[in-house]
Q: What sequence folds into this?
């Protein structure tokens, strides 16, 4: 069997699984079994694709036999295969966590009839985004995952979730309109939306037109990635969702936006030099995110702001625009997807033990649940970048690539990144100390509620036992974060090969020019 035939299955399987799960709306075990089996298959296929592209090169499936650029091209290279695999593993772990929560609490948080199908549709959108070979297919992938995310974010129908969901939906719609407008302008200017073909035709446009199209796409993707100043919606949207949904959103959705920026900047707009602008935006994202985190009194909102700040590290890697920068970015994306998801799952355990994630109400958790305290502590150290964890390895790679550029802005950004890393560690350890190390506060001595209630703050719930399945899923993810360090050598090597492939448009689009050998030559003649 040709490996190429596996390419579309990473999207087809979740869609078929969602349809099958929807056919059994009141059979929780059937829906759960179908969803788990589907994600296991996608993770396995992702691993096979990683091996195939690393040994044989890029795999391309032209849907329906229509050759690109007229047909839909699904393209899997090292970066795509890696992100599909990691995303499937994360989705599977969070699913196990949510099943454990459902078994313990019933279905108030995750209604059976819609949760599992929506979850698989979300996965299909994420996987499709990573293998999309043209802008319109990428747009469709974004819409698939966004429609599913609307359902998951507002699940349960509480006032807080509906309020946060409205903001999320409005912002997402604005982003989608901008993206669609950019696609229309690009097609009008070049006559194609195929990414490989655009790598040639974009260079034939006037530089001002290239810059305009580049910035329009950057704004559209920047909203989805939550870069400053387009990140205002995230801290109020994510913390209100159920713990499993928050974990998936934090780990994956913003990374799809970063992936889109990385792909288009390296493949389509490689000659449009906005690297200095990207570095400035990255620095502001780092600073604003961490300052917001330090000021928070709720752990989930604190983590949401650290998520924003760490998007700054990823944008810094894109802005470096070198093989070393791309390699470090690939490794850091994998690190952040896994670690950020794990930390939100671990905080989900804290919320069960303490009944809240507010630092004004949570205390003494170390005595109540020492194992949960260890899981949170290890993951926080990793996110903070303490050696020898993967967070430290990723930041060293990014800083080293920044220093290699010799740019004064890059030097400044390395300093800002190091400072933000220390402040991240401070914010996380402060939260851990108050929630776990601090002596338990009696109900009569707790901080009085403010006169004006925060509509986004979740009221304190009764403490609950932590189901073994939830602990098992979180422990498994913590083990995966440690494996990122234990197997850092092979993973960094793979990331370097992926970064080398991103270095030039010619390398990324080699499959296209092999099939259309005359187009590149004709374009060069026109340019001359």
A:
């Amino acid at each position: 069997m040709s490996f190429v035939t596996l390419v579309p299955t990473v999207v087809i399987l979740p869609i078929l699984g969602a349809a099958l799960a929807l056919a059994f709306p009141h059979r929780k075990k059937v829906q759960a079994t179908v969803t788990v089996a589907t994600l296991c298959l996608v993770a396995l296929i992702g691993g096979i694709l990683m091996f195939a592209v690393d040994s044989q090169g890029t795999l391309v499936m032209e849907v329906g036999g229509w050759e690109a650029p007229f047909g839909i091209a699904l393209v899997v290279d090292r970066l795509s295969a890696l992100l599909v695999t990691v995303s499937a593993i994360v989705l599977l772990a969070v699913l196990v966590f949510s099943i454990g929560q459902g078994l313990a609490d019933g279905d108030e948080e995750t209604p059976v009839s819609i949760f599992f199908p929506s979850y698989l549709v979300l996965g299909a959108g994420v996987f499709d985004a990573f293998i999309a070979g043209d802008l319109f297919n990428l747009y469709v992938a974004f819409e698939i995952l966004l429609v599913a995310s609307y359902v998951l974010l507002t699940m349960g129908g509480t006032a807080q979730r509906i309020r946060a969901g409205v903001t999320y939906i409005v912002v997402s719609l604005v982003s989608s309109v901008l993206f669609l407008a950019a696609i229309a302008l690009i097609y009008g200017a070049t006559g194609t939306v195929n990414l490989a073909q655009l790598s040639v035709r974009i260079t034939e446009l006037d530089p001002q037109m290239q810059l305009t199209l580049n910035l329009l796409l950057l704004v559209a993707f920047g909203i989805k990635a939550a870069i400053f100043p387009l990140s205002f919606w995230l801290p109020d949207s994510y913390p209100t969702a159920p713990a499993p949904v928050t974990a998936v959103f934090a780990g994956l959705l913003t990374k799809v936006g970063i992936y889109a920026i990385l792909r288009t900047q390296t493949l389509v707009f490689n000659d449009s030099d906005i690297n200095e602008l990207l570095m400035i935006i990255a620095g502001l994202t780092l600073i604003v995110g961490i300052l917001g985190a330090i000021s928070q009194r709720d752990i989930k909102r604190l983590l949401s702001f650290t998520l924003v700040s760490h998007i700054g590290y990823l944008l810094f890697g894109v802005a470096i625009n070198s093989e070393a920068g791309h390699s470090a970015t690939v490794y850091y994306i994998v690190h952040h997807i896994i670690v950020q998801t794990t930390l939100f799952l671990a905080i989900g355990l804290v919320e069960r033990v303490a009944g809240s994630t507010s630092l004004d109400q949570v205390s003494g958790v170390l005595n109540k649940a020492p194992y949960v305290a260890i899981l949170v502590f290890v993951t926080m150290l990793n996110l903070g970048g303490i050696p020898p964890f993967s967070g430290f390895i990723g930041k060293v790679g990014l800083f080293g690539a920044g220093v290699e550029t010799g740019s004064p802005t890059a030097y400044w950004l390395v300093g800002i990144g190091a400072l933000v890393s220390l402040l991240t560690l401070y914010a996380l350890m402060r939260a851990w100390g108050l929630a776990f190390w601090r002596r338990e506060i009696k109900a009569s001595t707790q901080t009085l509620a403010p006169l004006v209630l925060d509509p986004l703050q979740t009221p304190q719930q009764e403490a609950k036992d932590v189901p073994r399945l939830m602990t098992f899923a979180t422990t498994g993810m913590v083990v995966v974060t440690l494996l990122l360090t234990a197997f850092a050598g092979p993973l960094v090597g793979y990331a370097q090969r992926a970064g080398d492939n991103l270095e030039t448009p010619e390398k990324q689009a080699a499959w296209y020019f092999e099939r259309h050998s005359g187009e590149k030559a004709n374009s060069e003649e026109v340019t001359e």
Q: What stands out?
A: The radius of gyration is 22 Å. Confidence is low (pLDDT under 50) at residues 444-456, 523-528.
